[in-house]
Design goal:
mainly alpha, Rossmann fold, Glutamyl-tRNA Synthetase, domain 3, Glutamyl-tRNA Synthetase, domain 2, 4 domains, two-stranded parallel sheet, 11 strands
């Protein structure tokens, strides 16, 4: 265990994955979820699923089902999170139906696990900060704020809120709010001096307080932004290690100051590196980004996808590339995560089929069986292939996918057995032999 991992070692390790239900679970988010899951399992701790749905305007029906199903498909069951009762209480028109079979009966002891169901708790925290003089009401209109941003842009400066209402007496401001004036609540950030933050991968960073402004902790619609809600949730849910994308690194001063204002110990923050496409740019739809369900439907074995994705930004400390989920869990640690971006190239995931444990033996036995096959047609080839696959304890895509890659070099294509019949026995056996060599290399 590294020193940064041991910060919260007096408590069981608890990690969380906190997606927004605004679309399918893409590879970058899935990798963050996987790291969180692996860290919890490595330490014998708990992995939580929390749904960040405070931005009600961006909800996409069906996303919740996709998120929960994706984790299940990848073998990443959560210990605490949405249960049947909490999901049933949501607006089905916004969230879409969720298969009850994917949900546990009980969510856990630290729920609710939907931020939209935790609004009273956020208001309680905001009121405590107001009463303590650590936050204040601000009454600028949207037009006034837009004018401030435009003026800063014309000066070539980053926009920083001018703290106009920071020193208004609380009783006066509260009365104005109670009388119906639209407002937000902002945290009082330090005006000068250093702000120290710690990231597990990068160590301590010193920020100049003059570059920070008093950020919003309660929006005009009564919903909290991420900056407050996620921190309150992490504290309430006793999260010891908060893994999130590196794009949140610049927000660290806000979050550390909020924890300090509340008198709470922050979790260990781990800002995971970005996931890049094969062209070195941030992974996006232009790289053919797919949902987990699409990968599985195309025949990728979940264990192989876990193996491949774990190595995008993490190393076990040796040259091992093929590992079972249990082996990855045993080796996983924060010290193996790189601070540099990792590349996700789906094409490389196909080498993985041949590097699966037992692939060489399976393909070798299949070649021998096909050599002795009495007939060479699609039906006979399929029967032999499935018989050999069953002897090796393989099922579904785990039977056919390595064979397809071996004989065609591609993960998708026409009917496998029809293709093998057309290629001919000699050509198929030659390609299977070559694949066995590659698998053993």
């Amino acid at each position: 265990m590294t020193p940064i991992e041991s910060i919260a070692s007096d408590r069981p390790v608890r990690t969380r994955f906190a997606p927004s239900p605004t679309g399918f679970l893409h590879i970058g988010a899935l990798r963050t979820a996987l790291f969180s899951y692996l860290l919890a399992r490595h330490h014998g701790g708990q992995f939580l699923l929390r749904i960040e749905d405070t931005d009600q305007n961006r909800l996409v029906s069906g996303s919740l089902q996709s998120i929960i199903e994706s984790l299940r498909l990848m073998g990443m069951d959560y210990d605490e999170g949405p249960d049947r009762a909490s999901v049933a209480a949501l607006d089905a028109a916004k969230y879409g139906p969720v298969d009850p079979a994917l949900l546990p009966e009980s969510g856990g002891a630290h729920g609710p696990y939907f931020q939209s169901q935790r609004l009273p708790r956020y208001r309680e925290v905001v009121d405590s900060l107001l009463d303590a003089g650590k936050a204040y009401y601000a009454f600028e209109t949207k037009e006034e704020l837009e004018a401030m941003r435009a003026a800063a842009q014309m000066r070539g400066e980053p926009f920083l809120y001018n703290r106009r209402y920071r020193d208004v007496p609380l009783a006066e401001a509260r009365k104005r709010a109670e009388d119906g004036a639209e407002y937000v609540v902002r945290l009082k950030m330090p005006i000068e001096g250093p702000i120290r933050t710690v990231d597990a991968l990068r160590g301590e960073t010193i920020w100049d307080a003059a570059t920070q402004d008093d950020f919003v902790i309660l929006k005009a619609d009564g919903f909290p932004p991420y900056h407050l809600a996620a921190m309150v949730d992490d504290y309430d849910m006793r999260i010891t290690h908060a893994l999130r994308g590196e794009e949140w690194l610049s927000s660290s001063p806000k979050h550390f100051c909020l924890f300090q204002a509340l008198g709470w110990e922050p979790p260990v923050f781990v800002h995971t590196p970005s996931v890049l496409g094969p062209d070195g740019k941030k992974l996006s739809k232009r790289h053919g980004a797919k949902s987990v369900r699409e990968f599985i439907d195309e025949g990728y074995v979940a264990e192989a996808l876990v193996n491949f994705l774990a190595l995008v930004g993490w190393s076990p400390g040796d040259d091992t590339e093929v590992m079972s989920p249990d082996e990855i869990i045993a080796k996983f640690g924060i010290d193996g995560i790189s601070a540099s971006p990792g590349k996700f190239d789906a094409e490389k995931l196909v080498a993985k089929w041949l590097k699966q444990p037992g692939a060489a033996e399976y393909l070798s036995d299949l070649g021998a069986a096909l050599m002795d096959a009495a007939a060479w047609d699609a039906a006979a080839i399929e029967a032999v292939t499935r018989e050999v696959g069953a002897k090796h304890g393989r099922e579904r895509g785990d039977i056919t996918h390595p064979v397809r890659v071996a004989v065609s070099g591609r993960e998708v294509g026409p009917s496998l057995f029809d293709m093998m019949a057309v290629l001919g026995r000699e050509r198929v056996l030659t390609r299977l032999g070559r694949a066995v060599e590659l698998a053993r290399a």
